[in-house]
Amino acid sequence: VFRLDVGEPPRSVLGVGSVFWLGGGLVLLAAPRVMVRGVLRRFRESGYDSRRILLVGNGELARNVIKKMMSSKTTGYRLVGYLAGTPGSGREFTDAPYLGKPQDARHLCVNQQLWVDQIWVAISETELEELRTALALVSELPHEIRMVPDGLLATVSELPVSNVMGLMTVELTSAPIACVNRLTKAIEDRLLAALFVLCHSPL
Length: 203
Description:
Layout: H1 11-45, E1 51-56, H2 60-71, E2 77-83, H3 91-95, E3 98-100, H4 105-111, E4 118-121, H5 128-138, E5 144-147, H6 153-156, E6 161-164, E7 167-173, H7 179-200
Parallel strand pairs: 1-2, 1-4, 2-3, 4-5
Antiparallel strand pairs: 5-7, 6-7
């Protein structure tokens, strides 16, 4: 009777195998994210999967927000219009629909069911009374509320601060995670779980 003693594989083989496992895992994790981002980019260029923004303000801050949103279709943000005491002046405001005064926010968003995902308040902190009034008018609406600061508020606020399109925004109220984001996260979680099972399963 002959017995073939194979023995343990060389360390070099184990090392190469580990590298392939690691590389394959990284590809499995990165590929779906890249693919989803590419698809979302195409959708956003066509006007889909964009957060619809209602802007409040007609000053320099609001003008800058409109300019940023109009400059690219792939940012994922779409301006539906703006609210202010009077229509703003300048080319940027000409391109953006004027929907009324801040007092009309509830009527537009609730009664007329204007499709809005986020409300951005872009009023200078030097106009304190106007800023307070605008925030009070939109704070109870069922939308994510963000403020575009231009002073000390961004540095002293304990609220979440993020950079969107090169603009600093303060998140005053949050909204549930979007459907597409939930789908992306679910795909990544399942791929990660499958990779974990493969790495720990016997050969």
